[in-house]
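Ticket #4471: structure output looks truncated?

Reporter: J.K.
Steps to reproduce: submitted the chain below (105 residues) through the standard prediction queue, then opened the result file.
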Amino acid sequence: MAWMFLLVAGVLEVVWAYFMKESHGFSRLWPSMITLVAMLASFGLLATAMRSLPLGTAYTVWTGIGAIGAFIVGIVFLGEQVSAMRIAAAVLIVSGLVLMKLASH
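Returned output as attached by the reporter:
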């Protein structure tokens, strides 16, 4: 169950990052509110997952999901640049996540 909490926490990290961008520096009310609620939920689920997962594994996976998710959302919804170097970096992050998962008990 901890892995499910961690997965949802990572997805919520992507949600809050996107809405933080959409808040324009917290100058727009609803994107700002969604950012704060998603942040609280993400941190809460991360904390719950850390009850049974090692800190290094949980935090690395959480930030990795957020990084890859934000990368994809940036490309798909915000028109950010796609390049071979950025894709290679994303592949390395995913490889690290897989290795962390395999290394955890």
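Triage note (M.O.): checked the attachment and the full token line is present. The chain has one domain: 2-103.
Status: closed, working as intended.
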